[in-house]
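step 4 of 6: structure.
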Amino acid sequence: MLVTGGAGYIGSHTAKALRTAGYRVVIYDNLSAGHRLAALDNALIVGDIRDLEAVRRAIRQSGATAVLHFAAWLSVADSVRDPVGYYRNNVQGALAVLEAMTHENCKHFVFSSTCAVYGEPIETPLRETHPQRPINAYGQTKLAVEHALPHFERAYDVRFVALRYFNAAGADPEGQLGEDHDPEIHVIPRALAAAANGTPIDIFGDDYPTPDGTCQRDYVHVMDLADAHLRALQRLESGGASAAYNVGTERPSSVLEVIAAVERVTGKKVEQRPAPRRAGDPAVLYASAEKVRTELGWAPQRPDLDDIVGDAWKWHSAHPSGYERQT
Ligand SMILES: NC(=O)c1ccc[n+]([C@@H]2O[C@H](COP(=O)([O-])OP(=O)(O)OC[C@H]3O[C@@H](n4cnc5c(N)ncnc54)[C@H](O)[C@@H]3O)[C@@H](O)[C@H]2O)c1
C-alpha cells in the first residue's frame, strides 16, 4: 500500500493499522507537516505528491496495488488566505497521484475527504446525500477531487472510496503515535495544551443556537478512522463499487463539553477566553453513519469523548513538545 501523507496524523495511525492487518506499507510524504518519527518502521519515501515522476517511481518500486491518499493541507483559514496554494497542493497533488496510478496500473484509491464538502448544513445529522456546497477553499479542493474520481474510474478503471471524516481526534492507545500539528488548529490538543500549561483557550463564539451556545462537532477516534480505511480497502479488493461514506460517531459534542472532558481526564482546570466567532464555522456538524455501518460494517469502537481525550492526553503528556523534541 502506498500511503501518501503517512507521516501525518491520520495517515500514520492508518499505516499502523494496515501493518497490524498484515499489509506492507510504504509511506510517501514531503514532511511539510508530517514527522519522520511518525513513520515508525515503515519504509518512508520523502517526496512531493505534485512530482508525477516521483510518485510513479514510488508506486512502481513499492509494487503498490492501492494508494491511500492523505497528503493535503487542511486549514480552513489558510485556504481562504491562500487558495492558489490549496488548489495546487490538494487538487493538483491528488490529480498527479491519480495520473501516476493510471500509468502504473494501480487501480484502488482511498481518499481523505471531509465533512467540509457539505458546507452549511440544511439538516443534521449529515447524510451522504446532503447537498455539497462548501463554504471555503479547503472544502472546495476536496470536492473538486471527489468530482474527478468518477471520471478516472470511467476512463482508467480506478475504483475509489472517498471517506468524509468528521473531526479526527484521540491517539494510538499504545502511545506510539499522536497528533502534532504546528500550529495546532484542533480543539482537543489545544485544550490539552491549555490544561498542561495553564494558558487560556479561545472560545470562538458562545452565542450559537446550541444548548450551551458553543459549536457542536462529531469527534471520531483516529483508530476508528483507521479501521474505516481498512474496510474501504477491503471493499475495493473484493470488487466492491466505488462509494463515498461519512465517518463519524453520530454524537455531537460542544466545545464546552470537550473542555469539561479535558478537565476530567487531566484533573486540571482549563482557562477560557471568549473570542469572536470564526467565519465559516457552522453551529452544528455531525454525521449520519448509517451508510458506512450498513455497507462497510463499520462502527466506532471508542465513541466516548472521555476515552478519545484520554488517549490524546496519554500521548500529549508523554510528548509535551510533539515528536521531534520528545522527552
Ligand atoms: N484532521 C482532521 O480532523 C481531518 C478531517 C477531515 C479530513 N481530513 C483530511 O485527512 C487528511 C490527513 O489529515 P491529518 O490531520 O492527518 O493532516 P496532517 O497534516 O497531519 O497530515 C498530512 C500529511 O500530508 C503531508 N503532505 C502535505 N502536502 C504534501 C505534498 N504536497 N506532498 C507530500 N506530502 C504532503 C504532510 O507532510 C503531512 O504529513 C488530509 O487530507 C485532511 O484534509 C482531516
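step 5 of 6: annotate
 - The longest strand covers residues 108-114.
 - The radius of gyration is 19 Å.
step 6 of 6: archive
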